[in-house]
Every structure is written in structure tokens, then in C-alpha cells.
Design brief:
This protein is α/β, with parallel strands linked by helices. It is built from 14 helices and twelve strands. Keywords: Periplasm, Signal, Transport.
Length: about 375
């Protein structure tokens, strides 16, 4: 079996160069006040990670300001990194599957494991795949979640969402949506096709995934970005959404929307977010302090309850604190202690890590997704 993940710097730059143009349109980079570099932390992250519910206490504790450039999707993140001058960012929030590419491209620093509370983590997260290379640490996991079937509970019956086959239900024609990113969507279709490692498939199985999702195209009512995914589910435009999870529906539930995410019988995918310290960071010590802050029990509770989108957390001490201060949210997200919880789903093999394609290139999957959208 040939592994198609080429982690050379040349390949990294070639791949991200294809994405840089679209990334450049995503907005200007945060301006840094160089006279006060030691009082600023600049991060590249998914939306919400630099809002006051997350960083407010950190800013007050250290007398600093956190600035951010937000992105949507790992490909967009790679494009922004490849075109940004050295020193633009101090911290990079990366989906776990992209850490190896950041490392191969020379864009992140090696970390000292002793600086971070890995002993507080569940064993499954202490040496997370791709975060370590040759025994060296390059990224620290801070939160994760599951991707399954997101649906409107008033318009789609619970009995139908036991399988990804629901997306082909005739009653949902034009009412199925996609979160516009190829990895989660194609990964779910790969699970439906019976691939236990949905991203490690040979050419025959890759062709079968393409054919299967192409047959779904007449059902699709739209491809949505972060904001569009929220609104289309909330206003009833879309009845079932492929490629997302509780990170979307959990926010909508707070506002009373009748939506939910379930992991169907074929299993679900795990998205995982981690922090890396950028090469040539202006404030590397401040970056380290922030990772320590967000992985401490109090920071983990903030992360679990993030206003922008909730998440599961890897820290056992974080779970204990969450159950103490907000048992309702701990129960809603199934991070309960002493009874069945999300760790059992992982240990039972119902959840597979989202990865980059192993036997195809990332470019192949991205190109097919563009072809699918225009079909």
C-alpha cells in the first residue's frame, strides 16, 4: 500500500499554493502592534476562539490582548499559512489531520510535553496521532467532537436517521445540505460504503465513494459555509445536513431550534482541534501560557461551552469541573462520569478519526469535491 501523504515542504507549498488565492479573499490579516508585541497574542483559528467567553480571563490575568484571524476549513488554514509573512501568528489552531503538514512545512515549533497537563487527559488523547513525530511533540489537543447526521427533529423522524441512507430519502429531495468541506462529507459517505478506515481506501473504493455521493447530488439543496449552515438548519431550508455535528446543532439548540445530531449505525467521525506554536512567533512564551490556560480545568470548561460552538474536551479534570458547574451541559454532551459517555463510543469503535486521504492526494479529493458541487 502506497501512502500518498507527501509531507515535504515543496509538496506543502505546491498544495497550499492552489488554495492561497481563495484564502487571500478571506479578509485582511490581524495587525500587530510591534511596539507591544509581548502584550499581544495573535492566533489563526476557527471562529469563536478569540471571543471574550474564551480569552477574557486570559487577557485580564496577563494584561494582554488576543487578536485573531478566523478561517473555515483546514484547506483555508493551509492557504493562509502559506501566504503569511513569518511572525504573523503566535498560535495556530489546527484540525488534527493538518498538524503533520504544518510540521513538514516548517511552520510550527517543537513543544516540551512537560509544559502541558497530559496526565489530566484520557489515555486516548495523551499521544494523539500526528501530534508527535519521532517522539517529539508539535501540537496539543484542546477539544474534539463527533460528526454524524444533523437533522430537524420536527421534519425528519428519529427512525430514519439510523443510517446515512436517510440522505437519499425521496421526501428530502432538495432538503439535504452539505457543510462545504470535502473531508467530513466524503468521509461519511466512505463510512456508509463500509470502509472502516474511511480515509485509507484504495482506488477502487475511492471510485465507489465518488459514484455513491454523485448519486446524492439530486437531493442536495445547497452547499453552506459556517454561517449558512446555521441559518439553513434554523429556518427550515435544510432538513438534514451532511458533514457536521453537535458543534453546529448544539448552538442552535440553545436558541430553541428543533435540531439534533446523531451518530448512525455506520459510525461517525471525530474532528479534533489542537494548538501549535508558530515558527518565528513574536510571543512564544505567551502562546505557551495560553495553551496551558485552555488545557487547565477552567479553560476546558470554557472550551466545552464555547458560545461559537460547543465541543467535547480531553481533560478528565475538565470533565469533573464541568459536571460540578454545569451538569446539564455535561449531560447534554454525554460527558458524564460513572455512566455511559462519549468515551465509550470511541472505545467501542463507533468513531473514526478524521484524517487526510492516505492513498490519494488531498488535491484529488479537493478536485473531486469541486466537480461534485458543479455537477
Amino acid at each position: 500500500m502506497k501512502n500518498r501523504i507527501d509531507l515535504s515542504r515543496r509538496t506543502f507549498l505546491k498544495t497550499t499554493g492552489l488554495l492561497a488565492g481563495s484564502a487571500a479573499l478571506a479578509g485582511v490579516l490581524p495587525l500587530r502592534s510591534f511596539a507591544a508585541a509581548d502584550k499581544e497574542l495573535v492566533i489563526l483559528a476557527w471562529a469563536g476562539h478569540a471571543e471574550q467567553d474564551i480569552v477574557g480571563d486570559f487577557e485580564r490575568q496577563f494584561g494582554v490582548k488576543v487578536k485573531a484571524k478566523y478561517y473555515t476549513g483546514g484547506d483555508n488554514m493551509l492557504g493562509l499559512i502559506s501566504q503569511s509573512p513569518p511572525g504573523t501568528f503566535d498560535l495556530i489552531l489546527s484540525d488534527a489531520e493538518y498538524v503533520q503538514q504544518l510540521n513538514a512545512g516548517g511552520f510550527i515549533e517543537r513543544l516540551d510535553p512537560a509544559d502541558y497537563p497530559f496526565d489530566d487527559f484520557f489515555p486516548e488523547f495523551q499521544k494523539f496521532p500526528g501530534h508527535w513525530q519521532d517522539g517529539q511533540l508539535y501540537s496539543v489537543l484542546i477539544r474534539f467532537g463527533f460528526l454524524g447526521i444533523a437533522y430537524n427533529t420536527q421534519l425528519v423522524s428519529e427512525a430514519k436517521v439510523r443510517s446515512y441512507d436517510v440522505f437519499w430519502d425521496e421526501s428530502l429531495k432538495g432538503k439535504v445540505g452539505h457543510f462545504d468541506w470535502h473531508l467530513p462529507n466524503l468521509g461519511q459517505i466512505s463510512l456508509l460504503n463500509g470502509n472502516s478506515r474511511p480515509y485509507d481506501i484504495d482506488e477502487a473504493h475511492w471510485q465507489a465513494v465518488q459514484e455513491k455521493i454523485m448519486s446524492l447530488r439530486p437531493q442536495i439543496g445547497g452547499f453552506f459555509d459556517y454561517g449558512g449552515t446555521f441559518s439553513s438548519l434554523k429556518n427550515g431550508q435544510i432538513h438534514a445536513m451532511c458533514g457536521i455535528g453537535d458543534w453546529i446543532t448544539g448552538v442552535l439548540q440553545r436558541s430553541g431550534a428543533p435540531v439534533k445530531t446523531v451518530v448512525p449505525e455506520e459510525g461517525g467521525l471525530q474532528w479534533t482541534e489542537s494548538y501549535c506554536i508558530a515558527k518565528n512567533a513574536h510571543s512564544p512564551e505567551l502562546a505557551k501560557k495560553f495553551i496551558q490556560y485552555i488545557t487547565a480545568p477552567e479553560g476546558q470548561v470554557k472550551s466545552a461551552k464555547m458560545a461559537a460552538y460547543p465541543a467535547l474536551i480531553p481533560s478528565k479534570k475538565g470533565w469533573e469541573l464541568l459536571n460540578k458547574v454545569d451538569p446539564v451541559e455535561a449531560q447534554r454532551q454525554s460527558m458524564v462520569i460513572g455512566q455511559r459517555n462519549v468515551m465509550d463510543d470511541i472505545r467501542d469503535g463507533r468513531i473514526q478519526y478524521r484524517e487526510l486521504p492516505v492513498q490519494q492526494s488531498l488535491e484529488q479529493w479537493n478536485d473531486f469535491w469541486s466537480e461534485y458541487k458543479s455537477a
